[in-house]
Design goal:
The complex is a heterodimer of chains A (112) and B (115). Helix content of chain A is 0%, strand content 59%. With 112 residues, chain A is mainly β. In chain A, 35% of the residues are buried. In chain B, strands 2, 4, 5, 6, 9, 10 and 11 form a 7-stranded mixed sheet that branches. Chain B has a 4-stranded antiparallel sheet with strand order 1-3-8-7, with no helix packed on it. The model of chain B has no long low-confidence stretch (mean pLDDT 93). The chains are: A mainly beta (112), B mainly beta (115). At the A-B interface, strand 4, strand 5, strand 9 and strand 10 of A face strand 4, strand 5, strand 9 and strand 10 of B.
């Protein structure tokens, strides 16, 4: 069945360092890959997304890369700041549907 | 533009009762999806509605149901509540355009506690 694996489950980095979170999806028909940031007491907020016809996308300090052959995609945050501390979720959408499968989340802690 | 709103924000129910949660999507959005979020299972897809029709469904028992109204507002109902239904229920809206999944915007969620 459809599945998205996300690693690591927790990640601690020093302020200013980079953070990388990786996800692997199982269904080769997946064609849309969003990343969400969830802060305590709030719903997930979309921070960046990528479609299957693109290999990389960048938005200021955040970038996402996609390797369709290996079926994995990664979130890269550079120059981390304390306000980046949150839980991050990756997701994959099955082509032709509005069904999204989420990873299990990564708790990122940025240490000042 | 107002975001996704969910009501109520918190609910406490007892086993066997039923509950109805409400979601108002972003103006102009026609697709509403529901998710259950628990510490152990993460975010799990319940169902998605578009133009008052259920278009996609996850792997949840029939006790979980939903509907969508002509103004795109959606409700989710859980009957015969079980302790394991305690969770944060999230609603997400998107344009719902056919042929291409697009950005989903989440509401703050409804925290349901079943005693």
């Amino acid at each position: 069945g459809e599945n998205v694996e996300q690693h690591p489950s927790t990640l601690s980095v020093q302020e200013g360092d980079s953070a990388v979170i990786k996800c692997t999806y199982s269904d080769s028909a997946s064609n849309y890959f969003p990343w969400y940031k969830q802060e305590l007491g709030k719903g997930p907020q979309l921070i960046i997304d990528i479609r299957s016809n693109v290999g990389e996308k960048k938005d200021q300090r955040i970038a996402v890369t996609l390797n369709k052959t290996a079926k994995h995609f990664s979130l890269h945050i550079t120059e981390t700041q304390p306000e980046d501390s949150a839980v991050y979720f990756c997701a994959a959408s099955i082509r032709g549907t509005y069904k999204y499968i989420f990873g299990t989340g990564t708790r990122l802690k940025v240490l000042a | 533009k107002a975001g996704v709103t969910q009501t109520p924000r918190y609910l406490i129910k007892t086993r066997g009762q039923q509950v109805t949660l409400s979601c108002s999507p972003i103006s102009g959005h026609r697709s509403v999806s529901w998710y259950q979020q628990t510490p152990g299972q993460g975010l799990q897809f319940l169902f998605e509605y578009f133009s008052e029709t259920q278009r996609n469904k996850g792997n949840f028992p029939g006790r979980f149901s939903g509907r969508q109204f002509s103004n795109s507002r959606s409700e989710m109902n859980v009957s015969t509540l079980e302790l394991g239904d305690s969770a944060l229920y999230l609603c997400a809206s998107s344009s719902g355009l056919a042929g291409a999944p697009d950005e989903q915007f989440f509401g703050p969620g409804t925290r349901l506690t079943v005693l």
